[in-house]
Amino acid sequence: MAFDLIVKNATLPDGRTGQDIAVAAGKIVAIEPGIAAEAGRVIDAAAQLVAPPFVDCHFHMDATLSLGMPRMNQSGTLLEGIALWGELKPLLTHEAVIERALRYCDLAVSQGLLAVRSHVDICDDRLLAVEALIEVREKVKPYLDLQLVAFPQDGYYRFPTSVKNLERALDMGVDVVGGIPHFERTMADGAASVRALCEIGAERGLMVDLHCDESDDPLSRHIETLAAETQRLGLAGRVTGSHLTSMHSMDNYYVSKLLPLMKEAGVFAIANPLINITLQGRHDTYPRRRGLTRIPEMRAMGIPVALGQDCCMDPWYGLGSGDMLEVAHMGVHAVPMTSREAIRWAFEAVTTIPAQLMGLEGYGLAVGKNADFVLLQAADTIEAIRMRAARLAVIRRGKVIAETAPRVAQLALEGRPALVDPSHYAPRAAN
Hints:
Residues 41-401 form the Amidohydrolase domain. One of its GO terms (molecular function) is cytosine deaminase activity. Its EC number is 3.5.4.1. Keywords: Hydrolase. InterPro entries: Amidohydro_3, Metal-dep_hydrolase_composite, Metal_Hydrolase, Metallo-hydrolase_Enzymes. This protein is α/β, with parallel strands linked by helices. The protein folds into two domains: 3-52 and 364-425, Urease, subunit C, domain 1 (Roll), CATH 2.30.40; 54-358, TIM Barrel (Alpha-Beta Barrel), CATH 3.20.20. Helices cover 33% and strands 21% of the residues. It has 13 helices and 18 strands. The protein has helices spanning 78-88, 94-110, 128-140, 162-172, 187-204, 222-232, 252-265, 273-279, 295-301, 324-334, 340-348, 352-358, 381-387; strands at residues 3-10, 19-24, 27-32, 39-44, 49-51, 54-59, 113-121, 145-151, 176-179, 207-212, 239-243, 268-271, 305-307, 373-376, 391-396, 399-403, 409-410, 419-420. It has an eight-stranded parallel beta sheet, with helices on both faces. Helix 6 runs parallel beside helix 7 (252-265).
């Protein structure tokens, strides 16, 4: 039997080594050692890691790559970023949003990032960014899954036309109901917005993903309302609370009540290490809070937690590279999560867990799944995070859509090796 593609001698995320992956008609048809068959293309993985593609379940593609427009965020703070976005929105054009988004998707593909959930601001009566990203979603469909969230950036109740605009955006085909309850004028308005948005999700049969408690205020507790509404409306598995940074400031007794409620409700959580570690704790002197939500405690409770990038070169964050291994790397350091088990989990938090959160069909490295995967210059998942490993090949539906040369340095040192390959520095007892 002839296949379209065979990847030989791969190491898999679960630790299996010496595995061959055979692909036909865009699907994985076999994973086993020593597949003896012809193929249109054969790739020797050389015992390096093959993993499912990276997934970014929290991003803002309407703002990406807009750094410096109309001016720089000089303070680097969340509030100046929000003000800057307010200045930029009236200047946006349909064509410019599309061009920046497509350029970002090019970068994402090169990084093995083949699925993105992007929030899109609906606090603009033109809904220009919504129209643009719906067009982008169709353009990139052959190589990247783009899921859109109707996001009332300036508040569902606080912005005069958000209620109407959110319904308009969903009618246009936006996939997910979004919100930002902590940005409403009062805690009561924030709680009311959570209830209203969850009811919209229930009525329309859509997922719900709310920016929730993205603050250092220990009394910002909208995740409690979100969990209660998820349970009341039977939305288990369809609701996500993003950021949840207020949880790092809450007292332990309250959290001991909150986490079981989230678990019982079946709510997902998303932390955004790059952004949360830089934007939170800005009012602190010392000791200064890290700003990330309670990831280890949620994991121990059995709450599924994913890691998102959030921003890339936009008014809120002047860094970023579309690299989900950078996100995992920051999460490992900032929480911190440095046990071998926790580092392995961090890899899952940018692959399989966000894929589940987004409801991606056909995702995974198994027979019968879509032939979407990435060959990394690393011995295993821990090594991939340690080095932010090069993506040697990115495969979508069985076709190689991006390739990168191995990261190898040439040395001119007497008595030392001529070449240095960082992937050869893996510990001998890697696990």
